[in-house]
Design a protein that fits this description.
By secondary structure, the protein is α/β, with parallel strands linked by helices. Helices cover about 35% and strands about 20% of the residues. The chain folds into two domains: about 110 residues, Aspartate Aminotransferase, domain 1; about 240 residues, Aspartate Aminotransferase, domain 2 (3-Layer(aba) Sandwich), CATH 3.40.640. Bound molecules: pyridoxal-5'-phosphate.
Length: about 350
């Protein structure tokens, strides 16, 4: 076990077990005398890895049969373009919910392809950020889809519910919360998630798409950006990032060994509660700027009341192996990202440090 806890928002920490397995198999994957990196992507060895990863993801998320799973090179940002390019076909207007920086990036990209209606925006009440209730959204019943970001990674603002959009397909950027809690896939038209937070290393994005949404894209769409092409070729139209896919597979098997999504959800709740309860216990020292019902399970964001203490906090934390706690350059403050791979010992050490720090500097 490494004696360091990495609270980075992404690329994020990976379980030691996964890294050690990758290390063990590096030069000789399963007695073949070759690294998995060196295998052709269409050969039986890599095909086995690809199919197993899909089967494990389907099992972990109970993905219904009428959904396809695509493994697409590039980050979640790629989907900011692919979603409108593929869904603005009969109708090029879409609803977007703006709850932060990732939502805004998705909105700006969609505007290049059609008309965007921002149906709701996160607000501020008593210095706390909140997500407006759905009955206050200005939804267009004829929208091609509604896009939202269930967990805004930078501010740590998370939906505690799934929007009900009726016949309008719901599209979710789950990059920073996929597999962190149970969800019902059948409520969504498209779910996508970059792999560098809860699914492994950077370089790939998983797209779970309801089959009726796989159609001919806008005519100018580059071939790799077409869901239809990707689906017809089972994500093997060109050479996929095979090593990412392999690491993703190891992560999914690790998650199954942890007891699956329900078990990891309980662990994640314990981790985040340890930190949130301290913010509530030391309100004159630590401050949350998020309405309690919108607090993120994965990205716990807070500030020190005396902001001059923030650099000292970060430095002293790093000295005892609590690293990458600095908030995003836009928001400042402290951000403890605790994805699936963060063990309870990491949250415990951070909580202990926060108590000691508050006692010392209060
Ligand atoms: C990290 C993140 C992204 C960006 O992903 P890239 O892989 O860098 O394109 C997009 N959306 C959310 C919610 C994220 O947390």
């Amino acid at each position: 076990m490494r004696d360091i806890f990495n609270f980075s928002a992404g690329p994020a920490m990976l379980p030691d077990e996964v890294l050690l397995q990758a290390q063990t198999e590096m030069l000789d994957w399963q007695g073949t005398g070759m690294s998995i990196m060196e295998f052709g992507h269409r050969g039986p060895e890599f095909q086995r890895i690809a199919l197993q990863a899909e089967a494990d993801l389907r099992e972990l998320m109970s993905i219904p049969k009428n959904y396809q799973v695509l493994f697409i090179a590039g980050g979640a940002t790629t989907q900011f373009s692919m979603v409108p390019m593929n869904l603005f076909t009969n109708n090029n207007t879409a609803d977007y919910i703006d709850t932060g920086i990732w939502s805004k990036k998705a909105i700006n990209e969609a505007k290049r392809f059609g008309q965007v209606n921002v149906a709701a925006t996160s607000g501020q009440q008593d210095h706390l950020a909140f997500i407006p209730r759905e009955d206050q959204w200005a939804m267009n019943p004829n929208a091609a889809y509604l896009h939202y970001t269930p967990n805004e990674t930078i501010d740590g603002l998370e939906f505690s519910w799934v929007p009900n959009t009726g016949k309008v397909p719901l599209v979710a950027d789950m990059t920073s919360m996929i597999l962190s809690r149970p969800i019902d896939v059948s409520q969504f038209g498209i779910i996508y998630a970059g792999t560098q937070k809860n699914l492994g290393q950077a370089g790939q994005t998983v797209v779970i798409i309801r089959e009726d949404l796989i159609q001919d894209p806008l005519p100018s769409t580059p071939v790799l950006y077409s869901y239809k092409t990707q689906a017809e070729h089972h994500s093997f139209y060109n050479t996929p990032p095979t090593y990412c896919w392999y690491i993703l597979g190891l992560m999914l098997q690790w998650l199954k060994r942890q007891g699956g999504v329900q078990a990891i959800y309980q662990k994640n709740k314990r981790n985040s509660n340890k930190i949130y309860s301290l913010l509530d216990r030391y309100p004159d020292f630590y401050v949350s700027r998020i309405e309690p019902s919108c607090r993120s399970l994965m990205n716990v964001m807070f500030y020190l009341c005396d902001e001059k203490l923030t650099p000292i906090f970060l430095e002293e934390a790093a000295a005892i192996g609590l690293v990458h706690l600095r908030g995003h350059r836009v928001s400042g403050g402290v951000r403890a990202s605790m994805y699936n791979a963060m063990p309870e010992a990491g949250a415990d050490r951070l909580a202990e440090f926060m108590v000691d720090f508050a006692k010392m500097y209060r």
